[in-house]
Specification:
Mth169, Chain: A; 3 domains; two-stranded antiparallel sheet; 11 helices; 9 strands
Length: 273
């Protein structure tokens, strides 16, 4: 059975706990149905298991954090994996070493609130077990649908990280000559770098660097793509006028509420009359 407990880097200890749903798992069932529709009818079952890894905290004091990690009514936890390799291939997916897990800050806050000392870093993994298919098909499913290669990695069997803290080396800066690109080249650049920018946004970005009379750094193009994207800038909602609609409804609501407060309770006024 897999266990990461007790892994050390110097004096820092990496503790781990495994969690899975007891009884029926609706998340696994929904994902299984989607994968079967994508062309894997031979996939007869899917088990999911979460792993929480914490660095710097001793086993003697980490117990309260484990309790926060699961709902005892619906889930069970263990110091070792609860998945049996005999049931099918198991593949673990985790954020890359150079990426900070989005949940890290919340886990740190929970540890501090519980008075747990020594907390250094935390990460989460998801372990997928595929029933009814071989190892090759399981890896195909992972790479196609369940692992974002830009930010995630597969943890190989027996692989143990010496630290959970972000590791890696800075890459070289790439200069992009946006000014000389045709629209087809701009679209390809957007696709290759996962910017997902519309033609209008690509044109605006190009015009900026034409005025600057210099090529764009790769980080500049990617930061603009993120800032102007739907996730950060709600481009679609703005284009559809949804924000304006929400503001208008909010204004009407507050105006109506203020009028009611100024006039007093309507039902009481009618009774007094």
């Amino acid at each position: 059975m897999v266990s990461y407990q007790g892994n050390r880097k110097g004096e820092l200890v990496i503790q781990s706990i495994f969690k899975r749903r007891t009884g029926d798992d609706p998340v696994a069932a929904q994902l299984l149905a989607r994968l079967q529709r994508q062309g894997y009818p031979g996939l007869s079952g899917l088990n999911l298991e979460m792993v929480l890894l914490v660095e710097g905290v001793s086993a003697a004091v980490i117990g309260p954090l484990w309790k926060l990690f699961h709902n005892p009514t619906l889930e069970e936890i263990s110091e070792a994996s609860m998945l049996d390799p005999k049931d099918g291939p198991i593949i673990e997916v985790r954020y890359k070493r150079g990426i900070t897990d989005p949940e890290m800050k919340s886990i740190r806050h929970a540890a501090e609130a519980l008075g747990i000392n020594g907390f250094e870093w935390a990460r989460l993994s998801t372990r997928f077990q595929f029933i009814g298919v071989d190892e090759k098909t399981a890896h195909e499913i992972i790479h196609r649908y369940l692992c974002n290669a830009e930010v995630e990695t597969i943890v190989e069997p027996g692989e143990v990280w010496d630290t959970l803290m972000p590791q890696g080396q800075a890459g070289d800066v790439t200069l992009i000559d946006l000014a000389s690109m045709r629209i087809e080249q701009l679209r390809q650049m957007s696709e290759d770098r996962r910017l997902f920018m519309s033609d209008d946004l690509l044109h605006a970005l190009q015009q900026f660097f034409i005025r600057e009379s210099r090529p764009a750094r790769d980080a500049e193009a990617e930061m603009v793509g993120a800032a102007w994207g739907d996730h950060c800038n709600h481009t679609t909602m703005k284009a559809l006028g949804l924000f304006q609609m929400i503001r208008s409804l909010k204004k009407k609501f507050h105006t109506s509420k203020s009028r009611q407060i100024a006039e007093g309770p309507v039902c009481c006024t009618k009774r007094l009359r």
